[in-house]
Structures
1.
Amino acid sequence: MFKKFKNHESGFTMIEIMVVVVIVAILAAVAVPIYVEYVKSARASEARSVIGSIANSSDMFYQTSGEWPTSIEDLERKGQLDLKRSTKTKWQFELQLSDEGGNITATSTEEMAGGGGHQVIFNRETGRFSGYGTKDEE
């Protein structure tokens, strides 16, 4: 009539907890570098977008004046480019343009969340970006 109940303690063993910790660590080791590259690319996307506008404005500048602009100030004075103040505080742009192509380089300032000194380079001859936030980051 009387049933004897066994006293079962429930919970996880130390081995089970360690296995879970190892699995989480492996997943984090894979996910964190991917996330870091994603964040870099997102930060550099503003520079890539503005460089595209600068390249188009430079073409228009050349068509109207017969010479290539040497700075974004040249483009702004002619009314062919209007950059936001927030963009100018995060990025500095350097133009090295010629009939053969040339480069447009954006260098981040300390105001950018990722820190200063990162460069995004657009090669007009190839039409490709390199540097910060790209797969072939230098």
Note: The longest strand covers residues 91-98.
2.
Amino acid sequence: MQASSSIGRAAVSKTAGWGFDSLLACHFFNIRIHKLIPMESKADRSTSSFDAVKWLVVFVLIAAGVVGNQYFNAESLLYRVLALVALALVAAFVALQTERGRRFATLLKEARVEIRKVVWPTRPELIQTTAIVVVFVLVVALMLWGMDSLISWLVSGVIG
């Protein structure tokens, strides 16, 4: 069944009969009900709780690095930096084992692929566009300086 805004009249639209749907007054839709949010399985919930434990481990490793760096401040700077780098690597490894960490790693990989697609300018193009920008900025700066000087001269003339 189709509804029409004008019963018994000819189509007003220029697209009538050319394969386009006309704008009818009422449409009757066949509504399908879908589950928008699927139920979580037990495996998903256990993974998310295990992710929380992993993030806690990451936090503890970072805190240990901060506290350890202060506690061992009499030690050589080289040893402290090496210990902090080692703790940071372990913390990053643990963080990458979580769901968010995997998504972040995927984002980095995709960004790297996109950067490879970029067409970088040649040296002459880079020099030319840089020169154009510098000249344009100087011209605008001189114009603004001139307008500012003119306005301040006019205001000082009026005020006295």
Note: The chain has two domains: 42-117, 123-160.
3.
Amino acid sequence: MQTSTEDAVVMNKTASPLPASKDKATDQLTMTINSLEDGKAEDIVTIDLEGKSSLGDYMIVASGRSHRHVSSIADKLAKQIREAGFGRPRVEGTDTNDWVLVDAGSIIVHIFRPEVREFYNIEKMWLAARPEDNSALDFEDEPSKD
């Protein structure tokens, strides 16, 4: 009989993405980019999330030419992630296939139709420089406290 810890490990392998070390995340990143390229995804942008977010290690933004193409890219990617042993990714947005999110734990993939990607422009937000500590800023428009 398995202990509760063993049950949790077995459950994690089938229910959700597995947490990854940086090396494993890099391997997963390579596999993910290869899958996107094989699926003819366009304008693939990789964003390193280190120091920006604890959501994962990398975010990838890519485009598909149509609803069907976006769906095909996402389905193929999710299947390859499972088959490579990186866990079971969560997939959202397949009802419309305008914007599909594939959450593979250490890697988050956004697959858009071009017009939707242009509208949301999420890579601009995530590629922006991280704001430094703003506590020393001098706000001239702030009323004085005299």
Note: The domain at 19-127 is CATH 3.30.460.10 (Beta Polymerase; domain 2).
